[in-house]
Amino acid sequence: MSSLRILVPVKRVIDYAIKPRVNKTQTAVETAGVKHSMNPFDELSVEEAVRIRERKVPVEDIVAISAGPTKAQDVLRTAMAMGCDRAIHVEIPTDKGEPDLEPLGVAKMLKAVVEKEKRNLVILGKQSIDDDANQTGQMLAGLLNWPQATQASKVDVEGEQVTVTREVDGGVETLSAKLPMIITTDLRLNEPRFASLPNIMKAKKKKLDKMTLQDLGVDATRRLKTVKVTEPAPRKGGGKVDSVDGLIGKLKELGAL
């Protein structure tokens, strides 16, 4: 069996514990002065890649990649502290301070990196918590014409064969495919480790390459336009009824019965 050459895309997003606020122009979420961290689904991807190696599966190396401004290097250092061997930062300076890429643009970028780095397994979060698109992994599989297994809750690698268990409405579904392959991760897959201080210090010495979309020959022109971003409508308070007849009457009034 050839060794696994794993690519793990990670994204810098507003920390999951922070309540996002819409900016004054209602064009996006306010990001200035807001705490950011690695996308939670991407933490699962990094953890799973490291666990695959810890299970004594032959792994040549694990490469983390992120696209965005200089601050995106923070999540790459975290990924290396968790166990990735090196990282690639695709520099995309923007006035907003956030990557201005759509899922298709990200998929095109990842395809170029997969081919440049000769990767044979890509493990990425099923979605990022900022746009919730849940599209990049599927688009990447389509561009590469590779098999894919989405929303993985368990991953087993044996030789060239990869078996993925995923939760579906009726229970679980098991998929099997040969490398190369795309896997997207779901929350039940694992519990990501904390990056220890010694590993954080070691990560500072690991290699971090920088490149641009132009270096990769990728056209990431946007095809979508955000018309307006607004806060969710406030929920209305509930009401009390004195009896079952009152409840039935109220449901009929609301058109629920």
UniProtKB/TrEMBL annotation:
Per its database record, what is this protein's job? Answer: The electron transfer flavoprotein serves as a specific electron acceptor for several dehydrogenases, including five acyl-CoA dehydrogenases, glutaryl-CoA and sarcosine dehydrogenase. It transfers the electrons to the main mitochondrial respiratory chain via ETF-ubiquinone oxidoreductase (ETF dehydrogenase).
> What cofactor does this one take?
FAD; AMP
A GO CC annotation given for this chain: mitochondrial matrix
The record describes how the cofactor is bound as: Binds 1 FAD per dimer.
Q: Name the PANTHER family for this protein.
A: ELECTRON TRANSFER FLAVOPROTEIN BETA-SUBUNIT (PTHR21294), ELECTRON TRANSFER FLAVOPROTEIN SUBUNIT BETA (PTHR21294:SF8)
How this chain assembles, per its entry, is: Heterodimer of an alpha and a beta subunit.
**What is this protein called in UniProt?**
Probable electron transfer flavoprotein subunit beta
* Single GO BP term: amino acid catabolic process
Entry's family note:
Belongs to the ETF beta-subunit/FixA family.
Lineage top rank: taxon: Eukaryota
Keyword tags: Electron transport, Mitochondrion, Transport
Which Pfam families did the record assign?
A: ETF
Give its localization: Mitochondrion matrix
What InterPro entries is this protein classified in? ET-Flavoprotein_bsu_CS, ETF_a/b_N, ETF_b, ETF_beta_N, Rossmann-like_a/b/a_fold
